[in-house]
Structures are given as C-alpha cells and as structure tokens.
C-alpha cells in the first residue's frame, strides 16, 4: 500500500516537473525571439543608414557589399 502511494507520488512529481520545465522553455523561447527581433531590426536600420555593422561575420559581408555598391554608385 505504502509503495503504491509512494510510486504514484513520484509519478505525479515527475509530471509536474515536466510541466514546469516546458513552461520555462516556452517563456525563454518567447523572450529570446523578442530580443532577436529587436537586434535584427537595429542591424537593419544600421545597414539602411549606411553605418558599419560589426555584430556578426555574415552581416559584415552584406554590409560590406552594400557599402561597396554605394561607393560605386557615388563614383
């Protein structure tokens, strides 16, 4: 009897832990999506304003190409 109660209590606690874990994962994912959106928006504004972007390598490539293209147009 005591074993069954203890076993069911452990199963319930595991279920609650999974619910809490998934809730935390979802909240962190939503927060990181909003942070990434703001970062991409600010990088896009920097590129459109023809400022140097130094955040990541791939974005630097595109920024360099855009700046190079603008210089060719001016010349």
What is the structure about, briefly put?
This protein is an all-alpha fold.
Features:
single chain; 75 residues; mainly alpha; 2 helices
Helix-strand pattern: HH
Residue share in β-strands = under 5%
Extract low-pLDDT stretches: none
- Shape from CA axes? rod-shaped
Q: In terms of structural class, how would the helical and strand content be classed?
A: mainly alpha
Transmembrane segments: 6-36
Keywords: Membrane, Transmembrane, Transmembrane helix
Overview of the structural elements:
- The protein is mostly helical and 75 residues long.
- It has one domain.
- Helix content is 87%, strand content 0%.
- The protein has helices at residues 2-48, 57-74.
- The longest helix is centred in the middle third of the chain and has 47 residues, at 2-48.
- It is rod-shaped, with a radius of gyration of 25 Å.
- The N and C termini lie far apart (88 Å).
SSE layout and pairings?
Blueprint: H1 2-48, H2 57-74
Keywords: Membrane, Transmembrane, Transmembrane helix
Transmembrane segments: 6-36
